[in-house]
Write a structure and sequence with these properties.
Layout lengths: L2 E2 H8 L2 E3 L5 E2 L1 E2 L9 E4 L16 E5 L9 E4 L2 H14 L13 E2 L4 E2 L4 E2 L4 E2 L4 E2 L4 E2 L4 E2 L4 E2 L4 E2 L4 E2 L4 E2 L4 E2 L4 E4 L4 E4 L2 E4 L5 E4 L4 E2 L4 E3 L5 E4 L4 E2 L4 E2 L4 E2 L4 E2 L4 E2 L4 E2 L4 E2 L4 E2 L4 E2 L4 E2 L4 E2 L8 E4 L2 E3 H12 L1 H22 L1
Parallel strand pairs: 4-5, 5-6, 6-7, 8-11, 9-12, 10-13, 11-14, 12-15, 13-16, 14-17, 15-18, 16-19, 17-20, 18-23, 19-24, 20-25, 23-26, 24-27, 25-28, 26-29, 27-30, 28-31, 29-32, 30-33, 31-34, 32-35, 33-36, 34-37, 36-38
Antiparallel strand pairs: 1-3, 2-7, 21-22, 38-39
Amino acid sequence: MRKTLKEIAELIDGEVVGNGGTVITGVSGIKEAGEGDITFVANPKYFPLIEKTGASAIITSKDVKTAPKPIIRTDNPSLAFAKLISFTACGESKHPKGIHPTAILGKDVSLGHDVAVGPYVVIEDNVSIGDKTIIYSGCFLGHHTKIGSDTLIYANVSIRERITIGSRVIIHSGTVIGSDGFGFATIEGLHHKIPQIGTVEIGDDVEIGANVTIDRARFEKTIVGRGTKIDNLVQIAHNVVIGNNSIIVAQVGISGSTTVGNNVVLAGQVGLVGHINIGDNVIVMAQSGVSKSIPSGTMAWGYPAKPASQAKRVNACVQSLPRLYNTIAELKKRIEELEAKLK
């Protein structure tokens, strides 16, 4: 990249304060940035770094009026910086093009315009793929699967039979969609497999991280709603329904038949039991174990999870246990001394 600050401001709808002719050749974090780099600061607690950074220019919020070096003032610095990185990366990405000769396509496969299929991809019978979708090497698509337009599937993703994936979806390497749900009937100590004959439906604009597993439903559908973003190493069990625009962070596990609402945040290593309902706009803090349904608009934490304000009070009490133990031991000793004198 080699652009002036003025050119960058036009790309991200920002306002330059300072020398608009400053030449920018790279992007970087505010602590790592050096001469020629542009960086950003969004959180006010990091504003002091504006004085220290080695960057040649900074993307800031409109709360920042002046700075010791050129800035671009924007409504949302994080989003503006993300846009800039996207513009920068566009010229560097080298997605597959066309259908590689080693790809194996079954019967009645429907490919839209400008679909790209990389080396050693296997696409089974009756698969439908929308326009401009890109499938990297080593992927597997089972029969009767449908994939929308402008979807990006990275290497070594397995998508089993009869799965539906929307448009503008991103799926990272190692993910498996549509594997069997974990269903067994135990009879006289033996575990008998219960057939899992449902499917999985992924909405538009979903992003799924690396090594995620989303199980097919026993009946009907496992659903991930429009705009939801899923981090790496997440397990979503059979018949789970996740609403729109939710955030599922790394190492979350959601047990079967649980419903997660819209705009929910499940932080890292959260575990949910099966057959519960998580309402809209719920935040479950990291490493919580959720054993009961949570109403909409709640922030929950702990093991078992409870409203965060209550969980914090309980935790504060737990931290006081050593002192309380010593106090009780001292009181017990004094009571014993008083009882001895009375006798």
